[in-house]
Amino acid sequence: MFKKILIANRGEIALRVIRTCKEMGIKTVAVYSKADAESLHVRFADEAVCIGPAPSNESYLKMDRIIAAAEITNADAIHPGYGFLSENAKFSKLCEEHDIKFIGASEEMISKMGDKATAKATMIAAGVPCIPGSEGILDSYEEAEKIAVDMGFPVMLKATAGGGGKGMRAVWNKEDLKPAWDSARMEAKASFGNDGMYMEKLIEEPRHIEIQIVGDSFGKACHLSERDCSVQRRHQKLTEETPSPFMTDELRDAMGEAAVKAAEYIKYEGAGTVEFLVDKHRNFYFMEMNTRIQVEHPITEEVVDYDLIREQILVAAGVPISGKNYTPQLHSIECRINAEDPHKNFRPSPGKITSYHEPGGHGVRIDTHAYAGYTIPPNYDSMIAKLIVTAQTREEAINKMKRALDEYIIEGIKTTIPFHRQLMDHPDYVAGNYTTKFMEDFEIK
Fold first, then answer.
1. Alpha carbon of 359 to those of 152, 248, 402: distances in Å?
2. What is the CATH code of the structural domain delimited by 207-441?
3. Does 185 participate in catalysis according to the annotation?
4. pTM of the prediction?
């Protein structure tokens, strides 16, 4: 087992990893930028190393500084959390070259699943259902037009190196295809330095449902059931729940089997998520695989009583998994609490938290690095907390979330708490009748 783990991240996920490490008797090292000197992950780690100024590209994305911090503190493993370098093939390889265990996917695995076109080809070979579309990257606009016409509109153009909705365009007719092609490529080039595009059939009334998997170094994988992540804004998740209100036992078995098949086909090691689009007829299609821990992992932990960070560490240390697949026994909902003003188009709201009070009670969990007096820097993602509630039924979970949101007090900045409170009363959400298009017609009051 590892003696000391460096956490190459910040905020709530760094604190989350530190807590599990402490429970396992493993020493921890926090790295931090100058803007994060007062963050809780710095306070609660056994050691802390400043790796640069506030901008991410001068601190949390500086691979050489993180490796140096690991070496000077004698850390024998690095946990990357999510975001930053968690799915960076070069960083995974760099850790290996310095004899430091990267608690995540290998360079080969990240490369294979990080590029969407390559991932799709791999999943087709594995026998996992995929969305109809181009076979790999499109060579030209003429090829894109021919495939779109043959397949039929609507179609979705996607950047092969994309993420966060960048380089994506829904196209409903032939006349709009060329402008969408040009603008998507331009955006992809500016965002990722890669304007490679591929095309898929646009799935109407889609739900975004993902399956949590864990694979070990012996080629065995298991799944921990699903999470419904369909409530999104600009392809960014706002809230998640498990089990999905759209799920059936048959669909869960089929999707779970497909996710395990995908993981075992590529001999995946670690915690990962296989993401699917599910249409209104409950046909499901592979979308992408995230080779890291997800923001929304706590709801899975709550319904199956399973510490995913602990499992990541055990698998990285060479411990085999049980191989058991899990079915949710409870219902859990997560609301992402962002420092944003929902009444001003979710504009970021950094600044000092003047007053802070967390909700409590049975079945309420808060993952956060925020506290009264803490100043939220403007340099990073605006998520400051995750509010997770768990109950026997979905109806009870929604009622518990309402109560918890009413108790959650954060003053000095704007947050998304009022939005989530409104969401919990929305008749379509309460009925479980929502898709990835839900927010397009949602009116903030």
1. 50, 32, 11
2. 3.30.470.20
3. no
4. 0.90
* Catalytic residue (one of 65, 292, 336, 394): 292
Element (H, E) at 321: none
Structure tokens at 421: 């409170």
CATH 3.30.1490.20 intervals, the chain: 132-201
| 162: confidence class by pLDDT, cuts 50, 70, 90 | confident
| 128 in Cβ contact with 190 (< 8 Å) | no
Max alpha carbon distance in the chain (Å)? 62
**pLDDT tens-place string over residues 211-267:** 999 999 999 999 999 999 999 998 899 999 999 999 999 999 999 999 999 999 999
State the DSSP H helix or E strand holding residue 46, giving kind and residue range, or none if neither.
Answer: none
d(CA 166, CA 6): 31
Q: How far apart are CA 352 and CA 348, in angstroms?
A: 13
Pick the CATH number of 132-201 from 3.40.30.10, 3.30.70.2860, 3.90.420.10, 3.30.1490.20: 3.30.1490.20
381 phi and psi angles, rounded to 5 deg: -55, 145
Mean pLDDT of the 146-154 span: 94
Query: Cβ distance 391 to 397 under 8 Å?
Result: yes
Residue 345: Cβ-neighbour burial (10 angstroms; 0-12, 13-18, 19+): exposed
pLDDT at 116 over 80: no
Residue 42: partners with Cβ closer than 8 Å, 6 or more residues away: 30, 32, 36, 48
